[in-house]
Design goal:
mainly alpha; Glycosyltransferase; 74% helix; globular
Length: 395
């Protein structure tokens, strides 16, 4: 029987970990930020009971996000180390002309869709920095934010430079359009996320540059996706869950606009322009939700894969924007006023509150199911590995 260390070495030798797996960090961080927003609204309008429950769940989600992040970083480092050692001990690996197969991480970065998905590392760092800041860790948050924001900008430049070169090389023919997938929205709109922690941390100018970049890349990628669908047709079944990423851009931009409004309250009078912009983004997100509705049956019936984690962060962000706007409506109602306007605001608050509460349940359900499915997938992989011939070299 092989020792656990030998089994671990065999597992890492198969290079199972990818940069795209940091989408798990995105999902759990998004849930934590959502629940913290729920806590704030509940504390102000519903009392300490619901607020305490939301805070406990938010803390638990933040802990899971942190543990998953540390685990993936350590796993990727060990995986790379195992590969380096394996290449060093391979006969004639350095001096022969025999081709050495590239690592799975290299293959991931070689294609435009793979490189786009690898931006989940940078986005996960930025989101986790936002979570840490909310829990009173400004120094660690600032370090993680700077690394994540810089990496996000770098990946965005590389992805869209390679996309531009591919468009010139293939002249927008049938070889070009399959590279256009919703995963392009990860490096594109991930830039807009930096404002959530960047503004409170004091990186206003840096955040503004990336926010504007993200807002500009969003319609570009959306247009390419619509053209891709018209030219090539539906995505492969395994990639259908990535259509849910369409929820992220308007939700992220809407939250960013509200963050900018909050940052200007100390020096400027409250402006409804930011809120109107956020409402516009919310309507666009609702339209995107309707747009991906026809794919729901196929997504739910498809065999589980890591691509299904594309449901987690987009829905969490959309729910966060809904709760933020729900809070703004409640604030407007508490400001006084009578008549038909106040009655309409009350009706809007009830409808938006019910939808916001429903979305929290949906997001919790999504994260729960995805986590259980992922653990089952990992356990099946470990069982298969322990029974494989490669795990028993003595036989």
């Amino acid at each position: 029987m092989n020792s656990p260390l030998a089994l671990l070495r065999t597992a890492l030798g198969q290079e199972p970990f990818r940069l795209a797996h940091f989408v798990l960090v995105m999902g759990w961080s998004g849930l934590s930020l959502l629940l913290l927003r729920v806590r704030e609204v509940s504390l102000a309008w519903a009392g300490p009971g619901p607020s305490a429950a939301a805070q406990w769940l938010a803390a638990w989600s933040a802990g899971v996000a942190t543990v998953v992040f540390v685990f993936l970083v350590c796993a990727l480092v060990l995986q790379s180390l195992v590969r380096v050692l394996a290449l060093g001990h391979a006969p004639h690996s350095r001096w022969s002309n025999a081709a050495v197969s590239p690592s799975q991480l290299a293959l991931e970065r070689r294609s435009i869709p793979g490189l786009s998905a690898s931006a989940a590392l940078a986005v996960g760092m930025v989101l986790l920095a936002s979570v840490w800041l909310q829990w009173g860790q400004p120094t660690a948050s600032a370090v993680l934010w700077c690394v994540g924001a810089g990496l996000e900008l770098l990946i965005s430049v590389v992805v869209f430079y390679r996309l531009f070169k591919a468009s010139l090389k293939d002249k927008l023919n049938d070889n070009f359009w399959p590279t256009i997938t919703p995963a392009l929205l990860i490096p594109a709109v991930g830039n807009a996320l930096v404002v959530l922690a960047g503004i409170p941390l004091g990186f206003g100018t840096w955040s503004a540059v990336q926010f504007v970049l993200g807002c500009g890349l969003w319609p570009l990628v959306w247009g390419l996706l619509m053209l891709r669908q018209a030219r090539v047709g539906a995505l492969p079944l395994a990639m259908l869950p990535t259509w849910c990423i369409l929820l992220s851009p308007p939700s992220v931009v809407g939250l960013g606009l509200l963050a900018w409004q909050q940052s200007t309250l100390a020096t400027h009078e409250p402006s409804m322009g930011w809120v109107i912009g956020a409402w516009t983004c919310w309507v666009l997100a609702a339209g995107n939700l309707w747009q991906i509705k026809p794919h729901a049956r196929a997504v739910l019936s498809a065999p589980f894969a890591m691509a299904h984690w594309a449901l987690s962060f987009p829905f969490a962000t959309y729910a966060s924007l809904t709760w933020a706007l729900f809070a703004s409506v409640l604030t407007m109602i508490s400001g006084g006023g009578t008549g038909s306007g106040s009655a309409l605001l009350t009706v809007l608050a009830w409808c938006l509150g019910l939808w916001a509460a429903t979305l929290v349940g949906v997001v919790l359900g999504i994260l729960s199911v995805l986590s259980v499915k992922t653990l089952q997938l990992v356990l099946r992989s470990l069982v298969a590995l322990s029974e494989s011939p490669a795990a028993h070299p003595e036989h």
